[in-house]
Amino acid sequence: xxxxxxxxxxxxxxxxxxxxxxxxxxxxxxxxxxxxxxxxxxxxxxxxxxxxxxxxxxxxxxxxxxxxxxxxxxxxxxxxxxxxxxxxxxxxxxxxxxxxxxxxxxxxxxxxxxxxxxxxxxxxxxxxxxxxxxxxxxxxxxxxxxxxxxxxxxxxxxxxxxxxxxxxxxxxxxxxxxxxxxxxxxxxxxxxxxxxxxxxxxxxxxxxxxxxxxxxxxxxxxxxxxxxxxxxxxxxxxxxxxxxxxxxxxxxxxxxxxxxxxxxxxxxxxxxxxxxxxxxxxxxxxxxxxxxxxxxxxxxxxxxxxxxxxxxxxxxxxxxxxxxxxxxxxxxxxxxxxxxxxxxxxxxxxxxxxxxxxxxxxxxxxxxxxxxxxxx
Length: 376
What we know:
The protein contains 15 helices and 2 strands. The protein has 2 domains: about 1-180, Cytochrome Bc1 Complex, Chain D, domain 2, CATH 1.10.760; about 185-375, Cytochrome c-like domain (Cytochrome Bc1 Complex, Chain D, domain 2). With about 375 residues, it is mainly α. It has helices spanning about 1-5, 15-20, 45-55, 120-130, 140-145, 150-160, 170-180, 190-195, 205-215, 250-260, 265-270, 275, 280-285, 315-325, 350-360, and strands spanning about 235, 295. The relative contact order is 0.14. Helix 3 (about 45-55) crosses helix 7. Strands 1-2 form a two-stranded antiparallel sheet.
């Protein structure tokens, strides 16, 4: 099948080729990851994956013809964009850091606030957001593929759909199928912890893992099991980042948001910085979710700066210092806020423990995203 796709001129990324050859979606994931969950109504097929790859990298799916999904999720840097916050059409900047798509197939929720539960649901929202792709309707999206003979042929192959029977569901399923090939494990940590290679990690990184699971309390949110490590508890926590933007009375700001709430939460939180800082609350309306954001995975974290939902910390050293101070970059900064998670508290780590913890975080980079493979 790989050879057939390549003869047809279809771009076949190395990771996709490996997955198609080894059948990773059928239960053979990279070292350190569990079997890949595949929804029953959207099974993986080579034709669907290749179509989704093309859609993901096509800038025609934007109002200016300049923005594709790849613009915020660059193959070269572990499907991240390297910016504090994402940039969309007409150079507009959103309010949140663009999460990597790598291993998103394992998440129970998508986006920082979890407003989508599946990759299929997630795939549509950026296309219609005026800050991101800026397309006005689903019909505008479908007209792009229905008028392209190559896309029509590929939708027919993937879904058996004629030009006029192509639907938004088909399009989002194809993008999601491609994103499910972007899974990444087999890091130095995995080879040491799960593979038994005692030389795979440095002594500093090994000590850092002891800090991670011990006095650093990192594993309370960035979970690791004896079978695999997603490095996320799939939950939402208020870590104090940017929460001060809601002012002295965040509950009043939250009440105002709910009173003026529209169905388009996606547009509101990416265009209004204060609304963005409501976090999970904007989705659930629950007081306990005020300022809470999803725990990101730590895999390939060294390749995806800057960090936190607002992109406010640009190095791993600053991230470690921030959490060592209980949700502050400087111990003298105000806080904690009344809604801050009790899991975010001062750690009192030594300078050596902090250095070792950073070394451990750097050990979570998978070979396909390690330097110098993608330098420049």
